[in-house]
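Students often ask why we bother encoding 3D structure as a string. The short answer is that it lets us treat folding as translation between two languages. Here is a chain of 330 residues written in the first language.
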Amino acid sequence: MASRLPPLNPLRAFEAAARRGSISAAARELSVTHGAISHQIRSLEETLKTALFERGGKRLKLTPQGALLLPAVTQAFDGIAAATALMNRPSTSGSLRISCVPALLSLWLVPRLGSFVDRYPEISLTLTSSNDPNLIYSPDIDIAILYGAGGWKDCWTRLWSTFELFPVVSPTLLNTRPLRSVRDLHDHVLLHGDDGREWRSWLAAADQLDMPKAREHFMGDARLSTEAARFGQGVALGDSITASSLIAAGELVIPFDLAVPAPDAFYVAARNDVRPAPIAKVFIDWIFDMIETERAAQPRPASRPSGRGLPSTRKRNTNTNTITVLSEES
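And here it is in the second language, the structure alphabet:
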């Protein structure tokens, strides 16, 4: 069987020349002379006893026999390149320990971990629910996904995503107690995922800081306030990342067309000695690929019209073979 195969170098010269449409371009790609490419192609034609290119034009044109051969040669070289890359790829197996902002962990990361698990089935994950930046430096954590201002020292840090904040409410609550204008928030419970700063920012943008004080609950983090809104316990501030799936599913709706930038952003951080490890790199690359893909493909959630005609928004604050989920609330 092997004796029936043409020599490798002439096949490489043929494939490069056919793909580039030029002997000179193929020579530059393979770092050989124009004459060497021409010689290799003639040698292949003699071996196959057929012409592969039509001579005479400025650009190389395949003969019917050459057009028949090219796809098979290209596929063979692509297969060799792929196999070689797999052989040289560093190991991506073992344990990886991730800490993540509670809301982002439960509402965004966990529902999407299946794609990571499918791609890297030999990685075992331990997930910790926390927004404590000190975990960056803990030997028990490899990668931290944090909500904050960034700028943590003596570690690798990269901005993952900014986002906007906007009110979200369950459709059931909205049907029984409508929100026709921002002033109607006075008749609802405001659900806070922080100390109240975010709602004050949104009300200031809506020019409603003088609104009579509404009832309010402080939930500790955005996951709890978002879940409370989902169950009809009031109106929370959601965001385009953590609330997006609930909005798409119709479990939450956006009553006003007004969005404000979140005061901070999501960051991915790791110790300097952890960041270069292949097992850390594949997770970091995956989480950035996921947010970029969703940002490019996902339309803005539909907003209900408001009485004031305002603009809309969003907010902040898994599985492989083995996933352990820990709880360490910030």
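Translate back mentally: Confidence is low (pLDDT under 50) at residues 299-330. Keep this in mind for the problem set.
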